[in-house]
Amino acid sequence: MKPNTTAANDHLAAPLADHLAAPVADLLAEQSQPLPVRLDARLRPPAGFETLASVNPVTLDGAPAWHLRYERNDGQNGGLGGEHYSMVLAPSGQLLGKTWFSAAQCHGALPSVAQAQRIAHAYLEQQAPDLLPGMALQWVQPHDETLHTTAADGRVRTHTLTGMKVKCRNERDGRYFWIIVGPNGVVLTFERDIVWDFTRSLRQTEKWLHDSWLMGHAALA
User: Fold this and answer.
1) How far apart are CA 39 and CA 19, in angstroms?
2) Cα separation, 150 vs 146, whole angstroms
3) Which residues are CB-neighbours of 114 under 8 A, at least 6 positions away?
4) Pick from 73, 91, 106, 113: which is nearest to 37 by CA?
5) Greatest CA span in the chain, whole angstroms?
6) How many Å apart are CA 189 and CA 150, to the nearest integer?
7) How many alpha carbons fall within 13 Å on the CB side of residue 116?
8) What does the DSSP 8-state code read for residue 149?
């Protein structure tokens, strides 16, 4: 599938060209155009989800960012609500969030609370070590999401994707972050720097990784 970009994307890509690193060239060779930010090798999409479906400039609490969405190589179960691997990156290439919705991850035993905490800590050491000094654990508990697949006969199936959510607060800035660990210790979701609006009792930070939110904000996507 050819990447979808907007005119705004083309406008922002030029000043960010210096962030594109040679080591990612092999990853981007089969795409029709390069990404506007450096893509660390650790952020490579999972096998079978290497088709870059869209690249869009977005904002997170007023700061610029990029939203990348990969879908299955075979073209199945694409689009909002389907299977995907998505990321939000800062202009520098820093990972601000990622999620992997795969029907294959909807089965299997979940890690224990202790295991989920260890996996989350190891992930932060790799992807966001700056969060560790101010890390304050809030809770660890199962978290459900849904995704849809389409069978050969056209019937749509709804799947529940469950992981152990390790929710934390950064005591240095008051923002929240979390890691969701699925079956076999796979990190399904990571989000950071989330601002909570206590006056309205809801999340302030945009939800670019959440298809349910994107469906209601089509004009922004």
Assistant:
1) 9
2) 14
3) none
4) 91
5) 53
6) 23
7) 27
8) E
> Tokens standing for 63?
């700061």
Find tokens 């190589």 and name the residue: 73
- Total Cβ atoms within 10 A of residue 195: 15
53 closest CA partner among 4, 102, 103: 4
Q: Is residue 170 part of a domain?
A: yes
Q: What is the pLDDT of residues 197-208, one digit of tens each?
A: 988 888 999 999
pTM to 2 decimals? 0.83
* Residue 54: domain span: 7-215
Contact residues for 56 (Cβ-Cβ < 8 A; gap 6+) = 4, 5, 6, 8, 9, 66, 67, 221
Cα 45 vs. chain centroid, distance in angstroms? 10
Is residue 89, in this structure, part of any structural domain at all?
yes
- H or E segment to which residue 143 belongs: strand 135-150
- Does 221 map to a domain? no
Domain count, the chain: 1
Tell the residue number behind the tokens 């389907």, with chain if given: 82
In this structure, are residues 19 and 94 in contact, taking their beta carbons and an 8 Å threshold? no
Question: Cα angle vertex 213, ends 143, 219, to 5°?
Answer: 165
Q: Residue 37's pLDDT is what?
A: 65
Residue 119 carries which side chain, given as an amino acid letter? Answer: I
Compute the C-alpha angle 146/150/154, nearest 5°: 140
Query: Per-residue pLDDT tens for 110-152?
Result: 999 999 999 999 999 999 999 999 999 999 999 999 999 999 8
